[in-house]
Write a structure and sequence with these properties.
By secondary structure, the protein is α+β, with helices and mostly antiparallel strands. Among the domains are: 44 residues, no CATH class; 128 residues, Band 7 domain (Tetrahydropterin Synthase, Chain A, 2-Layer Sandwich), CATH 3.30.479.30; 80 residues, no CATH class. Helices cover 45% and strands 20% of the residues. Strands 6, 9, 10 and 11 form a four-stranded antiparallel β-sheet that branches. A three-stranded antiparallel β-sheet has the order 3-2-5. Helix 5 crosses helix 7 and helix 8 crosses helix 9. The longest helix is centred in the last third of the chain and has 59 residues. It is rod-shaped. The N and C termini lie far apart (183 Å). The relative contact order is 0.05. The N terminus is likely disordered.
Length: 375
């Protein structure tokens, strides 16, 4: 049968010379190519390729006699790339970054994406400069619970009394370079070590309290204490060149210690009672002094009038002695007999009572005039 005879004759019934259907000369069955839709890379193939690149190995079917190992150049490239990426950083709004080159200050950067030389050549410290920071001194607050800290809260006033002070300070950063380099631990550390700002605030409050008395501190001078502490804090921090701006000092509690509050209230009440008694005594003293001064002025005026009268009488006596004596005698007798009962002695009738008709007339006259006025 010829090679190209595929007519179906013979034993194979239309098969090729090797006993099968129409086949190619090399034993492969002729098939029509099928068109498949294009597909992306298989995930398993990608992972297998990566594994082979990093660790070597055989073919995809696990066979092959390739020697397994690590692709050191690729690892070196990845490590160098990661090291260079450590120099890329982002600064948020309200923050500033301080860049140091081998430990020395280099520059400051504002918000945005920036690049610096990777460590250990350059390092960065990102600091929030506009955010408001707070410190609570004299107490510790956990939610609604407040715990007293006697080591910070108890202070001595100028009049040798003990007062319990709780206050809060608010501040932010005005100079990021000074804040980062001029003062060690400007704020309280994570380990609880007090920062410079907290220590300055406590020292300023103790100094201000030590110059004032207890009663004004807990009553009328609270605002003055806050303002004075704020000014003293700012002055001290500026001398340290700390780069801190004090915003507000808020005095939350100023009272006697809790252990002696009852005794302190008794002392305060006793002081108020004493002050009330002193005020009453001063008022009575003033009244007595005023009455004494009025009596003195009255006596002086009367004595002055009597002296002037005597002087006038004496001047008249010097001019007419007899007339003056008669006048003095008559006026004296008039004053003597004005209030006495008169008895007239008649030589013939004896003692006759004197009927004071003139007194009756003087006594009835106002009564009659009053009746006429009522009409």
């Amino acid at each position: 049968m010829p090679w190209n005879d595929q007519s179906g004759g013979g034993q194979g019934g239309g098969q090729g010379p090797w006993g099968s259907g129409p086949r190619r000369p090399w034993g492969q069955q002729q098939q029509r190519p099928q068109q498949r839709p294009p597909q992306g890379p298989d995930l398993d193939d990608v992972l297998r390729d990566l594994r082979e690149r990093f660790f070597g190995g055989g073919g995809r079917n696990g066979g092959g006699g390739g020697k397994s190992g690590i692709s050191w150049p690729l690892i070196a490239v990845l490590l160098v790339g990661g090291w260079l990426m450590t120099g890329v950083y982002t600064v948020d709004e309200g923050e500033q970054a301080v860049i140091t080159t081998l430990g020395n200050y280099s520059r400051s950067t504002g918000p945005g994406i920036h690049i610096h030389a990777p460590a250990p050549f350059e390092a960065r410290q990102v600091i929030n400069v506009t955010g408001q920071r707070t410190d609570e001194i004299g107490f510790v607050s956990r939610g609604d619970a407040v715990t007293d800290n006697p080591d910070e809260s108890l202070m001595i006033t100028g009049d040798r009394n003990i007062v319990e002070i709780h206050f809060r300070i608010y501040y932010n950063i005005k100079d990021v370079f000074a804040f980062a380099f001029n003062v060690r631990n400007p704020v309280t550390t994570a380990q609880g070590e007090p920062g410079a700002v907290r220590q300055v605030a406590e020292s300023a409050m103790r100094e201000v309290i030590g110059r004032r008395q207890l009663e004004p501190i807990i009553t009328t001078d609270r605002a003055a204490v806050e303002l004075e502490v704020e000014q003293l804090m700012q002055q001290t921090l500026d001398e340290y060149e700390s780069g801190v701006q004090v915003l507000q000092v808020e005095l939350l509690r100023a009272a006697a210690p809790s252990a002696v509050i009852e005794a302190f209230n008794d002392v305060v009440n006793a002081g108020q009672d004493a002050e009330t008694a002193i005020n009453n005594a001063n008022r009575e003293t003033a009244q007595i002094v005023n009455q004494a001064q009025a009596y003195r002025e009255q006596v002086v005026r009367e004595a002055t009038g009597e002296a002037q009268r005597f002087t006038a009488v004496y001047d008249q006596y010097r001019q007419a002695p007899q007339v003056t004596r008669d006048r003095l005698y008559i006026e004296t007798m008039e004053r003597v007999y004005q209030r006495g009962n008169l008895v007239i002695l008649d030589q013939r009738a004896g003692a006759v009572p004197y009927l004071p008709l003139d007194s009756m007339v003087r006594r009835n006259a106002p009564t009659g005039q009053q009746q006429e006025g009522n009409r």
